[in-house]
Amino acid sequence: MLPLFRHLCCGWMGGWVLEAHAPERCAGQQVKLLARGARLTEILKQGQFQPLSVGEQVASIYAGVRGYLDTIPASDVVRFEGQMLASLRENGKDIMDAINSTGELNDENDKKLGEFLENCVKNFA
Q1: How far apart are the C-alpha atoms of 4 and 123, rounded to whole Å?
Q2: Which of 15, 93, 115, 119 has a Cα-to-Cα distance from 83 of 20 to 30 A?
Q3: Which of 72, 73, 78, 75 is nearest to 50 (CA)?
Q4: Per residue of the chain (125 residues), what is the pLDDT tens digit?
Q5: CB atoms near residue 65 (< 10 Å)
Q6: How many distinct helices (H) and strands (E) make up the chain?
Q7: Which domains does the chain have, with CATH numbers?
């Protein structure tokens, strides 16, 4: 697995590289994991002098870790995140305020955030 990992991650400065023949060498779950890793790498990139609140960071990472980004092409993840955060600031203020004030994601807000992200993914164009 290590040589395969080196092969897929060659040129780390250029980002994740998943060449055409790599899926043949990997089990399906490994390909999904690498694809999710590529999306998480994109979501973790933060613009210079563009700080995010704790709630915004939680929402972005939650979207990636929980698989909401799996259907979004990696090249569109940053655009999706921008749209999602703008919508969250406008329509999910209660979720953001709760996370920012407590620093926690309780069960109620977990459910609300999940439903919110499902809608964002569904409406992403």
Answers
A1: 36
A2: 15
A3: 78
A4: 444 444 444 433 444 444 444 555 556 788 888 889 899 999 888 888 888 999 999 999 999 999 999 999 999 999 999 999 999 999 999 999 999 999 899 999 999 999 999 999 999 97
A5: 13
A6: 7, 0
A7: 35-123 (1.20.150.20)
